[in-house]
Design brief:
With 126 residues, this protein is mainly beta. The chain is 11% helix and 36% strand. It contains 2 helices and 8 strands. The protein has a 4-stranded mixed beta sheet. The chain is globular and about 45 Å long.
Length: 126
């Protein structure tokens, strides 16, 4: 059976959740389009569509923190995917945290609940 994701429903982009394939920790959420989906399937590395740069974005290409896709889950409507990944390098977040979800809401404010695991300024100053 061919995989046909429903990119049309959301204007060409669908959510892609990156989840650690061993711990199930949610590391990040980004978007994919048909081209980044095809590249992910072809290369075996998570490739997203950057809305801010309006281009394909192979996660970790500049930092070296690539995401090796181990398994892909597709929801019932074929409009959201989970990439079960092996996160190469210490983290997935451009802020230096392992996960982009390093804050929680407490007393109507954001509280950091995870320490940084790498120096983002050094990694992204290349």
């Amino acid at each position: 059976m061919a995989i046909e994701l429903d990119f049309a429903k959301s204007g060409g982009l669908i959510p892609a959740i990156a989840q650690d394939y061993q711990t199930n920790e949610v590391l990040m959420m980004a978007y994919i389009n048909a081209e980044s989906w095809a590249e992910t399937l072809k290369s075996g590395y998570a490739t997203y569509f950057s809305r801010s740069r309006n281009q394909l974005w192979k996660k970790g290409e500049s930092s070296g923190h690539l995401q090796v896709v181990k398994e892909i889950l597709v929801d019932c409507d074929c409009d959201t995917v989970i990439f079960k990944i092996e996160q190469l390098g210490p983290g997935a977040c451009h802020t230096g945290h392992r996960s982009c979800f390093y804050r929680r809401v407490k007393d109507n404010a954001l509280e950091e609940v995870e320490a940084t695991v790498f120096d983002a300024e050094k990694v992204y100053s290349k």
